[in-house]
Predict the structure.
Amino acid sequence: MPPPVQPVRPVFVNLGPRSYLVQVGRDLLKTLGEEVNKKLPDRTSCAVVTDSNVGPLYAETVLASLRAAGKKPCLITVPAGESSKSLSWSQSVLGEMVRAGLDRKSFVVALGGGVIGDLAGFCASVYQRGIPYVQVPTTVLSQVDSSVGGKTGVNLPDAKNMVGCFHQPVHVIADLDTLNSLPTREWNEGFAEIIKHACIRDASMFKAIEDIAAGKGDIVSLIRRNIAIKAVIVEADEHETIGTRALLNFGHTLGHAIEAAAGYGRLLHGEAISLGLRAAAWLSAQVSDLTSDDYERIVALLKLCDLPTRLPDDLDTEELMRIARTDKKFENGKIRFVLLRKIGDAYVSKDVMEGHLKQALDELRK
Ligand SMILES: NC(=O)c1ccc[n+]([C@@H]2O[C@H](COP(=O)([O-])OP(=O)(O)OC[C@H]3O[C@@H](n4cnc5c(N)ncnc54)[C@H](O)[C@@H]3O)[C@@H](O)[C@H]2O)c1
Ligand SMILES: O=C(O)C(=O)C[C@@H](O)[C@H](O)[C@H](O)COP(=O)(O)O
Ligand SMILES: [Zn+2]
């Protein structure tokens, strides 16, 4: 007999009228329809938005579960990869939603990684001025980060996430069994956001990450721990107005520029963020209090997770700076840059200048 599946306590994201639960566990897709029904009993028609890798693996189970719960789902599939997180693909998805007859009482299910969560969430946020959506994240990255917090949106050619809305999901179902089909590279990239969470909030998580990288440790509890960190930060500053949520952007100012400059899809989001994390940690050791030992510890952990720490040679510093200037953290020509005082203690600094960013890029070439 296989060991019984241990139930994992869901994470509650407390946002007043926009509160929701994040279910974490195994074998959750089969009961997805029932769970959705608890949250959206009066809504029937829905679109399951997925991508060309995830759809063939999991869409049938999700559709069957929704049908068994009395829902009427249609399936919308976009090509896998970051290029689908675009205005033109959002137009295509919205068009399919119209053709499927979805109305203001319909809802969306985002079945896939962060690309699908951001794209489908964005479509839900603007369709007939907003309908509910459920996140069903199927990558490490989307389970620990993107499915929680309600940032939705698409990229412009040179600017990541430049068009979007805050639109919280009504429910999140993180089924860890879906991670069994995740290729190694996509598994590893999720650890960039986990290392980010450890750097900004929880130094003790370094040990748990090392254990997982060594093939030991409990991935379910690591994922739940990260969802809980993200939930607490989002609860404190849902719309990123007071600065707490901005800490989740640690490593993202240069990371986003690198991701866009490389061409969407060449580096996965987590891989670009790994480079951004190294750059931001290095700057923390230059202009803040991070010790060089702790900087080296962060770089070592990125390497242990098989994440890149060297900038591809063909990425030009001036081009990266041009793209970085479009980042949402540039305001009135000033950069709001996240630095570490020590591992587990981050803050938003206004002391980082463009020259510092160029130096950090030089460092990434070593
Ligand atoms: N909204 C947020 O708060 C937030 C946070 C972090 C990242 N993001 C965004 O998330 C995106 C990155 O997400 P991602 O890394 O999950 O990328 P992704 O959605 O492109 O998924 C990565 C690859 O894995 C495949 N895949 C997904 N699940 C699979 C599974 N279970 N089995 C096999 N293959 C599977 C996908 O088809 C894709 O090819 C970026 O666009 C990033 O900007 C958003
Ligand atoms: O949820 C957040 O807030 C984050 O910053 C999480 C990031 O990992 C994520 O990549 C996010 O999409 C970046 O947001 P942006 O506002 O800088 O585009
Ligand atoms: Zn990110």
Remarks:
- Residues 51, 53-54, 57, 80-82, 85, 112-116, 118, 138-139, 141-142, 145-146, 149, 151, 161, 178, 181-182, 186, 189, 268-270 surround nicotinamide-adenine-dinucleotide (ligand 1) (CB under 6 Å).
- The CA atoms of residues 46 and 118 lie 17 Å apart.
